[in-house]
UniProtKB/TrEMBL annotation:
InterPro entries: DNA_bind_recomb_sf (IPR038109), DNA_bind_recombinase_dom (IPR011109), Resolv_N (IPR006119), Resolvase-like_N_sf (IPR036162), SSR_resolvase (IPR050639). This is Uncharacterized protein. Gene3D superfamilies: Putative Large Serine Recombinase, Chain B, Domain 2, Resolvase, N-terminal catalytic domain. Keywords: DNA recombination, DNA-binding. Residues 15-162 form the Resolvase/invertase-type recombinase catalytic domain. Residues 168-267 form the Recombinase domain. GO terms for molecular function: DNA binding; DNA strand exchange activity.
Length: 479
């Protein structure tokens, strides 16, 4: 009798993770809504005989985006060989982006992990299951696109009826309509009046933050000042409709504000060419960037360029005075000339520079090891969390500490890399000599560019006595 080829029976049941996802609860119910409990019940009927090791859920998470904590947990457990099968209620729970869903399932398959579905009766470990998988995922993506289009149509119809989408600051949404917030509404209206009157943006930001009781950023304020909702309009895809909500701003005030916003809608200063020689690397002793301010010393006298701390209006403890830009430039050039002489004549200075770069290389290697260790620890704690060996609060606190450490180490690495990449003493000396020889003929952008290759930063300390010379309190850091 020919021997039969019997399939081996595993000693232990397969380890299965139950994965549940809903886009948004929002109080939904009924037979057509697959709630987390409904999904989990169907999955558990499917996995009878298997060993359930975890239930992972993504609540209020869209299936079109794969940046989900639940997906990351499953991937971590698969990489750690802690799961054999992932069970879902239906394949759309994995995702509604067919390309990314297939890539994720392929990654699991490469790690020896299969995916089974309670609704479609699909097993991705078989060829037939793979074929059915692709068809169902394509249908899920198609269905998601239909939902998106239907939702866009709903928003468009609401806009035509004068009903906006969203809830801008200054309004509250009640019974599917916008109503003026009793506190935030008047504060926004006052911000518009201040802007129309020509008040400085920094003052408007401060007043609005005090009224709202929370931080207000200038960029957000500018967006609010351009929002037609506040003048009683609803905008959808460029079309403007009369809204049914109460306006916070009169048409006259709105027009004045829009004219001002148009005048001020220039390219940010950081994208323009430098307007003075040391812009970008001149600071007060507290690390705030300095800016140039031009004004006459006496009434009717010639205008003089002076340096001020850019943070002085926000911090009373910062006071670098108002040194003349020309005096600071002269002192910086003197320091550059001395630095060039040392680089050319002083062997010890060149050796010190080489030692500094060597130390930076050693420091960089150590920092890289520390950062790798932190990243390894992040993976470890994530795996422990996926196995429910640590609670959510401990995980969140630990991972936050690790992320802070990683950011700090990355910043230190960038600083060390800057030292490692410094030009040679000969190159620095040549750049310094070129700067000194051609300073008078250079344009401001050229001065800033060449000076930045020699000078790391300039720190201006607060004066210790009346009219203390700028040279006595200016510290120049050279490469």
């Amino acid at each position: 009798m020919p021997a039969r080829n019997l399939r081996a029976v595993p000693d232990q049941p397969s380890r299965v993770v139950c994965y549940v996802r809903v886009s948004a609860l929002m109080g939904r119910g009924g037979d057509d809504f697959h709630s987390p409990d409904v999904q989990l019940g169907g999955i558990r009927r499917l996995i009878t005989g298997m060993r359930e090791v975890a239930v992972i859920d993504d609540i209020d998470q869209t299936g079109r985006n794969f940046n989900r904590e639940g997906i990351d947990k499953i991937r971590a457990m698969a990489e750690a060989k802690q799961v054999d099968v992932v069970a879902v209620y239906d394949l759309s729970r994995v995702g509604r982006n067919a390309k990314e869903a297939l890539a994720f399932i392929d990654d699991l398959a490469a790690l020896g992990v299969g995916v089974i579905s309670a609704s479609e009766n699909i097993d991705t470990t078989t060829p037939a299951g793979r074929l059915m998988l692709q068809q169902f995922l394509n249908l899920a993506e198609f269905y998601s696109n239909i939902i998106g289009k239907n939702w866009a149509d709903v928003i468009a119809r609401r806009a035509e009826q004068g009903l906006g989408h969203g809830q801008p600051t200054g309004y509250i949404r009640k019974d599917h309509a916008l109503h003026v917030h009793p506190v935030d509404g008047p504060a926004i209206a006052q911000a518009f009046r201040d802007a129309a009157a020509g008040e400085r943006m920094s003052v408007i930001v401060r007043r609005l933050a005090e009224a709202l009781g929370r931080t207000v950023y200038p960029s957000v304020l500018r967006q609010q000042l351009r929002n037609p909702t506040y003048v009683g309009k609803v905008v959808n895809n460029g079309a403007v409709f009369d809204g049914k909500h109460e306006a916070l701003v009169t048409p006259a005030t709105w027009e004045l504000v829009q004219k001002r916003m148009a005048r001020e809608a220039t390219m940010p200063a950081r994208h323009l060419e430098p307007t003075w020689s040391m812009v970008g690397f001149t600071f007060c002793e507290q690390g705030h960037a300095a800016y140039r301010h031009t004004k006459p010393d006496t009434k009717g006298g010639p205008k003089v360029d002076r340096l001020l701390c850019g943070h002085r209006q926000y911090s009373t403890g910062c006071n670098m005075g108002q040194p003349r830009l020309a005096e600071v430039e002269e002192w910086v050039l003197d320091q550059v000339a001395e630095h060039v002489r040392l680089l050319e004549d002083d062997v010890a200075a060149r050796e010190a520079r080489q030692v500094r770069q060597t130390s930076a290389r050693v420091e960089r290697a150590g920092l890289e090891k520390q950062r790798d260790a932190v990243r390894t620890a992040m993976v470890k704690i994530t795996k422990q969390w996926g196995l429910e060996q640590v609670d959510d609060a401990t995980y969140q606190a630990t991972i936050a500490d690790y992320r802070a450490s990683e950011a700090s180490l990355s910043e230190a690495l960038a600083a060390a890399e800057t030292v490692v990449q410094l030009p040679s003493p000969v190159q620095l000396a040549d750049a310094g000599k070129k700067l000194l020889a051609m300073w008078g003929d250079m344009t401001v952008p050229e001065r800033n560019r060449v000076l930045g290759t020699v000078v790391e930063k300039v720190v201006i300390h607060r004066p210790k006595r009346w009219r203390e010379p700028a040279a006595d309190r200016t510290q120049v850091f050279l490469y």
